[in-house]
Write a structure and sequence with these properties.
The chain has about 350 residues and is α/β, with parallel strands linked by helices. It is globular. A 7-stranded parallel sheet has the order 3-2-1-4-5-6-11, sandwiched between helices. Strands 7-10 form a two-stranded parallel sheet. It is built from 12 helices and 13 strands.
Length: about 350
């Protein structure tokens, strides 16, 4: 087999109606080793999918098994694992698609003899965010406080089902990609919606460390993971995917030119409920924990085993997002200078990560 070849050339992509899914579908078609791309979602996409064949199918239903069999799929890229549903389905629909949909898809893959590679989109949220967390999470780091709800808990369950599938089908190469918070000009993640608020609510006394990955790098690493293992690399396993470096929450506010409103933790929880109620942003409890304690992951496996180096650092990914969404209420340089002067005037007020 040739280097960089995608199995037998038939790639099925779930979550094709989302921006990320659509981008990946269009991109993977350009690979000369890919003969056909089957794009699947429960709703028709509003964006162009190029020459891909779109199949309207709900992965929660048994129909997905027929799709795999009819098209002789050898590579499955499961991107329909997300924190927000398309349309008005709400949190219940998102959880069902994440968990029940994944179970149904894996059951279909298990029975499909043509499937040889599975790539699953996951999240670094599986590590949670807690005050006694390690400074940096590796893929093998034991989690002290498992997520108790929301998308993070869904992702933990999804990964458990994927591990079970890998044991039952050892002939299938399985890659689980744990993405840090995805940002970029077209990112539609809950954290991106938070950063679009005119004023950023923060937790009083905390300035968490954050990591981001650019949406372009997300597509690039998905393409790499979908390919056969190249010489010297192994495209199977679980990998943290993030840009180099970290940003403090206070630094992101400065770069956006937006003021922050530090409030006590109980009030932040109330604000989050209010924002969800009025559908401004999905300010979930797990996101509140992230914006309180932060999260940083180690990416050595991504570089040395998977063989991927992101084009964008964390700071560059955030800069590209900020540039696309225009200036905030205050000029970033003026805001930064004012915050620095205030910090210098307060004894011990350096704003470190907690």
């Amino acid at each position: 087999m040739s280097e960089g070849r995608v199995g037998g050339g038939v790639v099925l992509v779930t979550g094709a109606a989302r921006q990320l899914g659509g981008r990946f579908v269009r991109r993977i078609q350009r690979d000369p080793a890919v003969a056909r791309v089957v794009a699947v979602d429960a709703v028709p996409p509003e964006h162009d999918l190029g020459d891909a064949e779109f199949v309207r199918a709900d992965i929660r239903q048994p129909m997905i098994a027929r799709v795999l069999a009819q098209h002789g799929v050898d590579t499955v890229v499961h991107l329909d694992v997300t924190g927000t549903p398309l349309g008005s389905g709400g949190r219940t629909q998102a959880k069902e698609t994440n968990v029940i949909g994944t179970m149904q898809l894996l059951g279909a893959c298990q029975k499909a003899p043509t499937v040889r590679r599975l790539v699953v989109k996951s999240t670094t949220s599986v590590y949670g965010s807690a005050p006694r967390d390690p400074a940096v999470f590796r893929e093998t780091t034991p989690v002290k406080s498992l997520p108790s709800g929301g998308f993070a808990k869904d992702a933990v369950e999804v990964e458990g089902y994927v591990r079970g599938f890998a044991r039952r089908r050892p002939d299938v190469a399985v890659a689980v990609l744990r993405f840090a918070n995805i940002l970029g000009p077209t990112a539609d993640t809950p954290l991106a919606e938070f950063f679009k608020l005119p004023v950023l609510p923060t937790v009083f006394g905390y300035d968490p460390r954050l990591q981001f990955v650019h949406e372009d790098d997300v597509v690039d690493v998905l393409v790499l993971a979908s390919r056969e293992a190249r010489r010297g690399t192994l495209n199977s396993g679980t990998f943290n995917i993030a840009g180099d470096g970290v940003l403090l929450l206070s630094q992101t506010a400065r770069r956006l030119g937006k003021p922050t409103v530090p409030v006590l933790l109980p009030a932040v929880t109330w604000i989050g409920q209010l924002l969800r109620t009025v559908a401004v942003t999905d300010f979930s409890p797990e996101q509140i924990r992230l914006l309180t304690h932060g999260r940083v992951v180690d990416t050595r496996e991504m570089r040395h085993t998977l063989g991927f180096t992101p084009t964008y650092t964390t700071a560059e990914a955030f800069h590209d997002f900020a540039r696309a969404h225009g200036p905030g209420l205050l000029p970033p340089r003026l805001l930064a200078a004012g915050v620095d002067r205030l910090a210098a005037a307060v004894p011990g007020g350096s704003g470190g990560a907690r």
